[in-house]
């Protein structure tokens, strides 16, 4: 018996017992769909996070008071460190030879007014020149803040599009004055929309010069300094130059730890991968349980099928079928059953991923490797769990099988 004939018999059995076949395949369908959906979400999230973290380029690093902290004790110790200042940022701008851009920033949340309209909880960011490169802001109307705005502590601002739409519906905001906290600032620019990241708007903000922020805001605290190196190759050199300069300014002796933190995009990506790696393994493990259950159901049904078709097997052996032919026939049937469920599971998983990606902020990235993985897993389930019933069928004695009623 050839492969085509065995596959035809298996498909005929599925069509003849539609309800039983569907219930048999249900575990495989759910398992493969779960695996496809999990892989799609994880891949989509990885790509999404990578793009967002690397908006300004992978050759950007951040210096702040805390650095990368993952436990409360380190945070308490970091609170005792001296604040970073505008003077530190200026020293880095002049002293780090491999830096293309040095941006000082600070921020808090404020209420913004324009006439009778107001918005609460708007992120107000004090930024120095070059902030648009670090934050990947593109101007839609007007202009960005300049070095002159910062040096002269001008009361000017650039608004995010969400703030503009709510305060100036249908109107041109350029040149208008808004109240940010206790200060009145003139709107000089509006950025292009960036949308949402994990459900949080990236367009609800106002940017003012960092020296203006430091002058008028009581919650000044420590600033953050973002540095973009000349290129990727210059990144390690720029980091070392910045570290040496700050250690010198703070009189930190040899062998003593830094009292500031340096964080790169790779640091965040490594943390993200570590965090999601365990979750990914657990989710795949849970989804695989459904595949195992589906495989056990297939093995059960194949054992029943062998019992029901004992006489048929005896007739085939009597007509010259070898044990190998019977073994291959039942293996093909089990694999066809499992693979049919796998294909339905792939369609369900891809559809679920696209649906969730369309109606929610969760990104999904369906890939060919994920689909191939689903096909491979369902095929292996059929072969593994179909092996015992097929082996049992191949070992039946033809005389006893012909006598079976």
Domain count: the total is 2
Percent of residues in helices comes to: 55-70%
**Rg from Cα:** 32 Å
Number of helical regions = 14
Q: For the residues shown, what is the average pLDDT?
A: 83
Unreliable sequence segments: none
Main sheet characteristics: 6 strands, mixed, barrel
Question: What is the total tally of β strands?
Answer: 12
Approximately what portion of the residues adopt beta-strand conformation? 15-25%
What is the helix/strand order?
Answer: HHEHHEEHEHEHEEEEEHEHEHHHHH
SS class: alpha+beta
The end-to-end span amounts to 24 Å
Q: Would you mind describing this structure in some detail?
A:
It contains 14 helices and twelve strands. It is an alpha+beta fold and 405 residues long. It folds into two domains: 3-51 and 270-403, no CATH class; 82-259, no CATH class. The strands form two sheets. Strands 2-3-10-5-7-6 form a six-stranded mixed β-barrel. Strands 8-9 form a two-stranded antiparallel sheet. The mean pLDDT is 83.
Q: In terms of topology, how is this protein built?
A:
Elements: H1 3-16, H2 18-53, E1 60-64, H3 72-79, H4 86-95, E2 99-114, E3 117-127, H5 131-134, E4 139-142, H6 147-151, E5 156-159, H7 161-167, E6 177-180, E7 183-191, E8 196-197, E9 200-201, E10 205-209, H8 210-216, E11 224-229, H9 235-249, E12 261-264, H10 265-308, H11 310-318, H12 323-359, H13 368-394, H14 398-403
Parallel strand pairs: 3-10, 5-7
Antiparallel strand pairs: 1-11, 1-12, 2-3, 2-6, 2-11, 4-7, 5-10, 6-7, 8-9
List keywords for this structure.
405 residues; alpha+beta; 12 strands
């Amino acid at each position: 018996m050839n492969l085509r004939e065995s596959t035809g018999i298996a498909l005929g059995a599925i069509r003849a017992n539609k309800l039983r076949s569907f219930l048999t395949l249900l575990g495989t369908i759910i398992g493969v769909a779960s695996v496809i959906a999990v892989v799609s979400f994880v891949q989509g999230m990885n790509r999404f996070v990578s793009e967002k973290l690397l908006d300004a380029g992978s050759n950007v690093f951040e210096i702040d008071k805390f650095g990368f902290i993952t436990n409360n004790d380190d945070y308490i110790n970091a609170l005792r460190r001296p604040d970073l200042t505008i003077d530190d940022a200026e020293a880095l701008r002049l002293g780090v030879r491999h830096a293309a851009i040095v941006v000082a920033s600070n921020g808090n949340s404020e209420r913004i007014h324009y006439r009778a309209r107001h918005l609460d909880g708007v992120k107000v960011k004090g930024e120095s020149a070059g902030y648009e490169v670090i934050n990947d802001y593109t101007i839609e109307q007007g202009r960005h803040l300049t070095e002159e705005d910062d040096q002269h502590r001008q009361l000017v601002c650039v608004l995010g599009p969400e703030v503009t739409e709510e305060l100036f519906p249908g109107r041109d905001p350029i040149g208008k004055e808004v109240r940010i906290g206790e200060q009145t600032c003139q709107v000089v620019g509006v950025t292009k929309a960036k949308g949402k990241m994990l459900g949080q708007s990236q367009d609800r903000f106002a940017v003012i010069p960092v020296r203006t922020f430091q002058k008028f805001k009581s919650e000044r605290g420590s600033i953050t300094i973002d540095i973009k190196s000349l290129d990727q190759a210059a990144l390690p050199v720029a980091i070392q130059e910045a570290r040496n300069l700050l250690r010198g300014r703070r009189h930190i002796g040899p062998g003593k730890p830094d009292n500031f933190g340096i964080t790169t995009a790779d640091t965040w990506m490594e943390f993200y991968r570590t965090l999601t790696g365990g979750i990914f393994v657990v989710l795949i493990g849970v989804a695989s349980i459904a595949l195992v259950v589906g495989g056990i159901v297939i093995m059960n049904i194949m054992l029943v099928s062998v019992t029901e078709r004992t006489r048929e097997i005896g007739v085939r052996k009597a007509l010259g079928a070898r044990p190998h032919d019977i073994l291959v026939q039942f293996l093909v049937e089990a694999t066809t059953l499992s693979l049919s469920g796998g294909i339905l599971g792939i369609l369900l998983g891809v559809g679920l991923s696209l649906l969730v990606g369309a109606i929610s902020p969760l990104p999904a990235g369906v890939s060919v490797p994920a689909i191939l993985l689903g096909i491979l897993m369902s095929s292996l389930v059929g072969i593994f769990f179909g092996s015992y019933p097929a082996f049992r069928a191949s070992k039946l004695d033809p005389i006893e099988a012909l006598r079976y009623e």
